[in-house]
Amino acid sequence: MSPLARRSIYRTSMFVLSVVLVGVLWELYKLIGPEDGGKIFGAAVLPRSNDTAMPHIWSMLSRYGRPEVRGSDRQIWSVVLAGAWYSFRLSVAGFAIGATIGVGLSVLMARFKMVERGLLPYLVVSQTVPLIALAPLIVSWGGKVNILGFTWPKWLSAAVLGAFLAFFPIAVGTLRGLASAPSASLELMSSYAASWKQTLFKLRFPAAIPFMVPAFKLGASGAVVGVVVAEISTGLKGGIGRLIIEYAREATGDPAKVFTAVFGAAALGLAMAGFVAISDVLLMRNRPKETTT
Amino acid sequence: MSAVNVQGASKIFNQGTPKQVDALVDVNLTVEPGEFVSLIGPSGCGKSTLLRLIANLLEPTTGEITVNSKTASQSRLDQDYGMAFQQAGLFDWRTVAKNIELPLELKGWDKAKRAARAKEMLELVKLPEFADMYPWQLSGGMQQRIAIARALAAHPPLLLMDEPFGALDEMTREYMQGELLRICSETKTTVVFVTHSIPEAVYLSNRVVVMSPRPGRITEVINVSLGSNRTEDTRGADEFFKGITAVREALRGTHDDHANAGAVRGVEDR
């Protein structure tokens, strides 16, 4: 067995083990935790462990096999799957927009020190703007867009908000990566009279990959969060975010239901991170092993 | 026509500020085609700065530099020289052959021509079986040979080297010195070589340029009369030791303030 295969088997089994462990801890707390929560001087410090607040793992899992609403012939797993697929496509769109903008900005910042000085503080500030506040703005701006017959679809707002969270780590990580090319290598390129563009593609980008991969991982999960939050705050139908908010309203009557959607969102995030991880393995397969992330 | 001609070159960093450094003052140096010239001196004597002025990686504050009878910047644009540094500086993400092809790629050579030249260069440095390996799979000495192959890939008439063997162990270093002499005589390349090591400078060079710091300048140029056919036996020859003694004495004078401190700081005596 190749070391790579052995490592991936090891990693997968560790992942499964950690999931099982979380489930065990959940059930253990349900067993010994106070039904109505622990309070010290009136302040709740321990969460309630009753079936409404913390349904059993098996009731969450078995919920997937039952219909979404009473009398419906659609089982909830297919609804959650369809929602996750819808949000996944939005996240990929958001990630693509965010990656394009992020990499573009980082190249501009690497090229012109002035741009970096002027732009970077704004990028940092942009991430402190709450997404919930931004979502209605984007939707209303989008509604006004009408260029050459192109009208702004509502889903694009969600994708843009995903991009908004995705571009920042990508821009910052790529910028660091582009700056990581050793000065001796830069000197070498300049001794070959290489143009800035040649240096960018033959030296700076390849040297940036070990920095870009973790940045893209952060960006991918950022895109998912952005899309899910945007679905909730703009009321976009069809995605996993919308399912979470809908099912959460039924939490008292059907507490396991919301968890089916939450797990769907988690699986979505994992799928996104997984794609970046695969690209990592492909891009780094010929690099010295100590620089792989 | 001289390969390198430096006339009255000075390089002053941070001019007019309290941090002003006179890295080089009024340097004159001529290197003839086919010659092997070493620059030696203690740290801060400006030997690397002089090499970078010739390479046009730095602009002189004053003075004129021509390489192959062209301005230094024109000869850089024409890739009239190859360069090798202390760190081999190979790109981890390229195979050995692709590393050698890098300067040719930048020049816009087509693929077949590049591959043929890379093969030729790998044979020159005697590592043809490593073409498809990655640099980090090779030892330090092999990496440095690949770096030399890369520097010579475009067949430049001039090779500029900045302590290329400084990071190698002594055995590898002596082997590399022999290889470099063989490669340069096979390719008829002119070399300007920066080093810290006196024996290395003497063994390799036709002329050793001794430099001194504060301000950086050339204090003496020593001719080495070891002939053109140098072998491992040359390291035991009287002329070799005479050359070492001459360079060492020239270096003694470079440290006005530490003249009685024994060995010259920053220069290896081995």
UniProtKB/TrEMBL annotation, chain B:
Signal sequence, start to end: none
Sequence ranges assigned to domain ABC transporter in this UniProt record: 4-238
Alphabetical list of SMART domains matching this protein: AAA (SM00382)
CDD domains linked: ABC_NrtD_SsuB_transporters (cd03293)
Sorted UniProt keywords: ATP-binding, Nucleotide-binding, Transport
Keyword rRNA-binding part of the UniProt annotation: no
GO molecular function annotation: ATP binding; ATP hydrolysis activity
Full protein name: Unannotated protein
Source organism per UniProt: freshwater metagenome
